[in-house]
Amino acid sequence: MKNRFIIFVIGVLLVTQQSCVDNAIVDNFFTIPNQHWTYAQPIKTVVEITNTTQNYNLFINLRHTDAYKYANIWFKVTIVSPDKKKKTERIEFNLATTDGAWLGTTAGDLFTCQLPYKQNFSFAQKGKYLIVVEQNMRDNPLDGINDLGLRVETVK
């Protein structure tokens, strides 16, 4: 009976440990000086891909304050492949509900969102990819943006 209990406890610990493993290959935030994000301040991240058969989820990490005056945000995202080919797209994310409540998690007046950019995405070739995120709103600078970054994780 004691052996079964010990085996059960070890099994629970192993399952718990495996569920806590972070599958991110990149997860970063860059601070935006004075919370004024300008067109001249793109966020750049290098991602090394070693497995082209693996699928990945890409997220834009965003922290903003309640000084941010819009319910949405537009980004221009460019992915530069190892062979220097560029693919750029303009994307929009909602940051608030229709009644004005901020989405994401909050700590005081700082709101953190993980915005899904690409799901089950596959990179065509091995090597280093450069991912560039630029603000693409009409305001320049864009006020109330505290931090911005990127998360790339393997799909389980």
Shape type: globular
- Mean pLDDT across every amino acid position: 90
The number of helical runs is 1
Helix content: 10-25%
Proportion of strand residues: over 45%
Number of domains: 1
CATH superfamily: Galactose-binding domain-like
Q: What is the CATH top level name?
A: Mainly Beta
Uncertain regions spanning at least 5 consecutive residues? 5-19
Order of helices and strands: HEEEEEEEEEEEE
Distance between the termini: 36 Å
Features of the shown structure:
globular, Jelly Rolls, 6-stranded antiparallel beta sheet, 156 residues, mainly beta, 4-stranded antiparallel beta sheet, 1 helix
Concise structural overview:
The chain is mainly β and 156 residues long.
Describe the structure in your own words.
The protein is mainly beta. 12% of the residues lie in helices and 51% in strands. The chain has one helix spanning 2-19; strands at residues 24-27, 30-31, 36-37, 43-49, 56-65, 72-80, 86-94, 105-107, 110-121, 127-135, 142-143, 145-154. A hairpin with a 2-residue loop joins β8 (105-107) and β9. The two termini are 36 Å apart.
Q: What is this structure's SSE topology?
A:
Layout: H1 2-19, E1 24-27, E2 30-31, E3 36-37, E4 43-49, E5 56-65, E6 72-80, E7 86-94, E8 105-107, E9 110-121, E10 127-135, E11 142-143, E12 145-154
Antiparallel strand pairs: 1-12, 2-12, 3-11, 4-10, 5-9, 5-12, 6-7, 6-10, 8-9
